[in-house]
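Input.
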Amino acid sequence: MRYERKYKVDNIALAVVLQTLKLHPSSFRKIHPDRRVNNIYFDTPDLNTYQDNVDGVADRKKYRVRWYNTVPTDISNPKFEIKIKSNQLGDKKTFPVLPFRINQTKDLQNEVIGLMNNCLALSPTLFNTYQRSYFGTSNGKFRITIDRDLCYHSMLNAQAFSRFSRKDNSVVIELKYNEEWDEEAQFVMQHLGFRQTKSSKYVSGMLIATS
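Output.
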């Protein structure tokens, strides 16, 4: 399992965030080209996974279908992901799913429920997209992602997608590392200079898109 330390930065330019990372003594370097991340989040009829996150439940799960494409509605090679959280540590299970159309998600929903062995009634709740940059240390112990241009569409308010109705101008930084490197991570976090926050794109998106 690994840690994912999150920092949601408001009212600070992306250039400032990138410069901070460039000057970091751990020598972060770009490890992957930028790409657009697209997700559909799934939840129960009572929004249990959303509520568990808001309530800070120690052991919880999050369900989403993710794909990468500059055009969010052009869907190829999607994956169903189960994010598992146990206190501060996280893990992920990934399953391939069939391509689908964003306005025709019933087959996708059935496929997701089937992957859950029909034991959990999940349905689409939120569609979001953002641009992500990837950085890592030369020893491979620590990785940082920087997300911006976050856009949301509530699939509760409007199942059919026409456009992203809400935008979040924040920058979200995530420091990711295996649990055995937690002691060394204190040095990395100390020199980031940002305040660690509880930041869930699912929770933030639901609050923004359904308001």
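The two ends are 35 Å apart (CA to CA).
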